[in-house]
Amino acid sequence: MALFTVTSPHATGPLNTARVMQLVLLATIPGVLALSWHFGWGVLVNIVFACIVALGAEALALKLRKRPLGFYLGDYSALVTAVLLAIAMPAYSPWWLIVVGVGFSILIAKHLYGGMGYNPFNPAMVGYVVLLISFPVEMTTWAAPRQAFAGEMPGLLDAINVLFAGREAVAAFAVDGITMATPLDILKQNNSLLVEDLWAQSPQFGQWAGLGWEWANLGFLAGGLFLLSQRVFTWHAPISMLISLTLISALFYDGGSSASGGSPLFHLLSGATMFGAFFIVTDPVTSAVSVKGKIIYGALIGVLLYLIRVWGNYPDAIAFSVLLMNFAAPLLDYYTQPRTYGHQPSSKEGGE
Fold first, then answer.
1. What distance in Å separates the CA atoms of residue 327 and residue 82, rounded to the nearest whole number?
2. Coil, helix or strand for 179?
3. How much is the pLDDT for 184?
4. What CA–CA distances, in Å, run from 18 to 24, 65, 103?
5. In the record, which residues are listed under signal peptide (predicted)?
6. pTM of the predicted structure, to 2 decimals
7. What DSSP letter does each residue of 26-91 carry, written as one string?
8. Residue extents of the structural domains in the chain
9. How many other CB atoms sit within 10 Å of the CB of residue 107?
């Protein structure tokens, strides 16, 4: 299948990439604040360190490619990749895990293909999947939420010490209850309790989904709606994803038996649902471009997300779902291009 030029309409003015990236970074603030409040300083420490590593990796790649540093570093794309990957990683991740993930995202998933605008796969999600497959223990060691924490929450200095020295070197991390399985993982492994009983005896569950996770999802939803209001992207892909996830989870919801995969509200406010819908699925480089293509693209991500969560090997699946559909995006665009203005259907198309 040959590559082709996307049909009109096209942008008629200069695209201010830096402004778009700044808006994306600004929109992550509500979700990041919610994560930081519920899971501690480790979230912010991850983000700051990931940004430092991303700028260094970006500068190295640009120097090797003999590109001007100031121009390309000033578009904020490296910082967006770093922030998105750091948000997706567990709080209090070790420094080397962040270096590997961010370095792979910038150097391999982005610059190996030609830099921003040429990468076929979302760089942050590529880095996340590489880490999850290579270091499953570190990538599934999630911090307990504040409400279920056994002891005093670690402070900023504790979080910095954990980043460089490891959990075993910090006294605050010696207490029981510093880490817990996520609500998605608990529900996935449940095979004996009704959902109502599981909810009552597990400290990780909140009012609608997981403690902390539900508020983080609402925060990213607020940020996503802000980006929609600024016309950074259109509604087609994220809303299509959320609708398909809602429909398929409602279709298979059995009311809360021991084999239940969870209610629609649980799936909408668990894991990285809203973060993925508004900050990952909407990536203009790796997603479908046509309107119909965006709708199909988002809907299939929602379906894959539910299928992998409930019957796959991973409790959350935004990264895998997005990368699988990155493969399919060019095919979707090929078959969903709108008719060019003024084009007359051929006799075969007209059924004559």
1. 22
2. strand
3. 84
4. 10, 21, 21
5. none
6. 0.89
7. HHTHHHHHHHHHHH-THHHHHHHHHHHHHHHHHHHHHHHTT--HHHHHTT-HHHHHHHHHHHHSPT
8. 17-335
9. 17
Helix or strand (DSSP H, E) at 321 = helix 318-335
CATH, domain range 17-335: 1.10.3430
Name the amino acid, one letter, at 19: R
- CA 261, 314, 94, 274 dihedral sign is negative
In angstroms, the CA 174 to CA 66 distance is 48
Secondary structure class of 143 (helix, strand, coil): strand
DSSP 3-state of 205: strand
pLDDT, tens digit (0-9, with 9 covering 90-100), for 137-147:
889 888 888 87
From the first residue on, what is the mean pLDDT of each consecutive set of 10 residues in the chain (352 residues)?
49 72 96 93 95 96 90 89 96 94 96 90 96 92 78 83 80 60 81 78 79 92 96 95 96 83 90 95 92 96 94 87 94 83 53 43
Phi, psi of 119 (to 5 degrees): -75, 125
CA distance 127 to 281: 16
| pLDDT at residue 351, rounded to an integer | 45
What number of other Cβ atoms are within 10 A of residue 79's Cβ?
20
